[in-house]
Amino acid sequence: xxxxxxxxxxxxxxxxxxxxxxxxxxxxxxxxxxxxxxxxxxxxxxxxxxxxxxxxxxxxxxxxxxxxxxxxxxxxxxxxxxxxxxxxxxxxxxxxxxxxxxxxxxxxxxxxxxxxxxxxxxxxxxxxxxxxxxxxxxxxxxxxxxxxxxxxxxxxxxxxxxxxxxxxxxxxxxxxxxxxxxxxxxxxxxxxxxxxxxxxxxxxxxxxxxxxxxxxxxxxxx
Length: 222
Fold this sequence. Notes:
With 222 residues, the chain is an alpha/beta fold. The chain has helices spanning 22-26, 28-31, 35-55, 62-76, 85-93, 101-110, 123-133, 155-165, 179-188, and strands at residues 8-11, 114-119, 141-144, 172-176, 191-195, 211-213.
């Protein structure tokens, strides 16, 4: 067991608390045999757009990028009917939370820790997902990069979260399933934990996670 004694936990939203592939999963039969590849392209382009725009000193909100990435996926996988577009976007607003999320948050909350989300998502997206998953009452704050008009992993984003919670970075545990996000959080000074649900190989070894976990339930062991 690693004793980090954090005062607060900050969680990434998409891929960490909410399953980004749940939208396509709800419409898998209509999407057809290339549904999984379609969803992977949608997700990878969504993230790519955040990084390239930030590097270029530009900002477009995450919902718009989600729409653009979806359109790109349709262009790449023409076997998926574009008539699914409104259904997939509606589903993305209320993505399913992973099955271990609510119990893990409740366990941490019961110890008196403060809990927050820090996400690239817009306030509208986050409000919809948090409400649909029933975790709103477990959170002290839901923070969107939209206020800064910058995307993770820019250090300003992590600083915004620490300042909002009025905590030193070293007193905050940051939890994400995205290894690049863990890298950014660790570089900033958070105690970063990687939820490696897919069993991916590690990377960014010069900015290592304090601990690698396979699911949210394991947070209670640290």
